[in-house]
Amino acid sequence: MSDTEQHQRYTFTFGPRETRGVVLGLGMGSVLLVFAALFALTRLASSGTGGLLAGIALVALTVAAVWVPIAERPLVHWIPVAITFALRRLLGYSRYRGGPAAPPAGSARSASPAAGGLDLAPLELPGELAGLGLLTAQVHTRHGPRSIGVVKDRRRGLYTLVISTRGSAFQLLTPEEQDARLMSWGETLAGLGGSATGIVRVQLLDTTVPDSGDALERHWQASGGQGSPATGESYRHLLAQARPITQRHDSYVSLTLSPRRARRQIRTLGGGDRGACAYLIQQAQAIQRELRNAGVQADGALAPRQLAMVIRTAYEPGARWMLERRGPDMHTTGGASADEAGPMACDADRWAYYRTEDTYHAVYWISEWPRRPVLGNFLEQLILGTRCERTLSVVMEPLDPRKAEDDVSRRETTKQTDAGMRHRWGFKATARQRRERLTVARQDEALASGHGLYRFLGLIRVSAPTLEALDQACGDVELNSRGLKLRRLYGEQDAAFAATLPLGRGLRYGPLQ
Q1: Closest of 282, 294, 313 to residue 139, by C-alpha
Q2: Which end of the chain is more exposed for a tag (fewer CB within 10 A), N or C?
Q3: Strand intervals (E) in 75-198
Q4: What is the pLDDT of residue 374?
Q5: Nearest in space to 307 (alpha carbons), one of 156, 423, 135
């Protein structure tokens, strides 16, 4: 037997999505709603048979609203979503108009030198992203000074930097090499755990976009490979045929810094925006070294115009080819300026999709990850098998070890209490409930062994120029999402779209909880 056959593969095990609550998996709001219905029943029962029947009907409706799922969500969870969606439409907040149609920017939105000596260019973005600004930080490299774009969330006081990455042929490596790279990536995440680094979000993005083919044509022209008229015509014909089917993957890693967790380090680097950006760049450089050790090619942090282009093309994918024709120099004329980063129009008045410019988007939440043990390439079919324009976003929050221990202890106590109540009431524990308890026990063991814990959110954004094409693209994604449980975020498409941008949104600091 060969060494490869004897090698024990590195596998991942995901527990079921945890049903948290105060009693029997119910949240405080649901518990209060049930008690209110029972109280109403006692009051109505004293008024006679009619009141008793009305009270019983009220309790039955309340129990159904709390326990019976509609589209995999209890009705009580849909109520705030529907109310928020209706109010936004009624008040006109579901529509955004940028450019000349935008309302005049106030003083909080004007470009000005920020504290710390860096200029802050406002980003005109809709909804929850209003109030973001783009800082330009300078860093000295062996090739000379270069600019790095840092997004500042002025409302929350957060800074986000985006690193461009390129993967390698992971599927062509031997099992030993694959597992070695996975372990290196695990060590990278472990190094970000805790509060010492100040990093509160790590976001991984992979975007599949149609390739205009301009890079291939420029390479062919620069190489002087004209050849004879016959071969030249043949190459031109081949490049023209490849344009409609050529795809490329744009991959990014974004880091979000909370200055409150790194006050001392930022103060030693000058304080303010300048110190925060300098410290965030230091963390990004360390992460890039770790990524290279894990076999990921890191091309460095995005320049301001490059970062603005990434945001712009998310809202308007059709602008990608026009922006790419400006050239590769992202420090002068290439990419997009901060003024061009935002969309001209966005409509969030539809329940199932979000429209920006001339593009329709549908965002899915990965509510369940594979239940069975899987290898590190379990997302390969989704990443390489889809032919539509889609973005996979995974936002992770490193948890402070002490807070993680308290959270795990509290959840374990809740699980034990629920199990005791079910046993007293004659309910048998389900396999899902037993697996939830096992997942909590594994997390407790991991913390005791010195590992870190992360909260994470997985989203998939699908984009298309028409609704018919969007339906086909959604079917393509659903077909290739084997082992994943996808849930379309009805009524929250605009907030979900914002969480798929490389800005570290979602989880606690974003609109999605």
Answers
A1: 282
A2: N
A3: 95-97, 112-113, 119-122, 132-141, 144-153, 158-166
A4: 87
A5: 135
Backbone angles phi, psi at 487, to 5 degrees: -130, 120
**Residue spans of the chain under pLDDT 50:** 1, 4, 105-111, 115, 242-244, 509-513
- What's residue 502's pLDDT? 94
Q: Are 74 and 66 in contact (CB under 8 A)?
A: yes
Convert 420-468 into a string of H (helix), E (strand) and C (coil).
HHHHHCCCCCCHHHHHHHHHHHHHHHHHHCCCCCEEEEEEEEEEECCHH
Query: 174-233, pLDDT tens digit by residue?
Result: 888 888 888 888 888 877 766 678 899 999 999 987 665 555 555 556 565 556 666 666
Contacts of 243 (CB under 8 A, 6+ apart): 211, 212, 213
Torsion, CA 401, CA 368, CA 480, CA 69, rounded to 10? -150
Chain centre to alpha carbon of residue 439: 23
pLDDT of amino acid 181: 85
Contact indicator for 344, 350 with CB cutoff of 8 Å: no
Strand 297-301 relative to strand 199-210: parallel, antiparallel, unpaired? unpaired
Phi and psi at residue 242, to the nearest 5°: -75, -20
Instruction: Scan for tokens 């009619």, then name that residue.
Output: 50
Asked whether 145 and 301 are in contact (CB, 8 A), the reply is: no
**pTM, rounded to two decimals:** 0.83
Whole-number Å distance between alpha carbons of 197 and 192: 7
Q: Looking at residue 220, what is its pLDDT?
A: 56
117 contact partners, CB below 8 Å, separation of at least 6: 270, 272, 273, 274
Q: What pLDDT is recorded for position 432?
A: 76
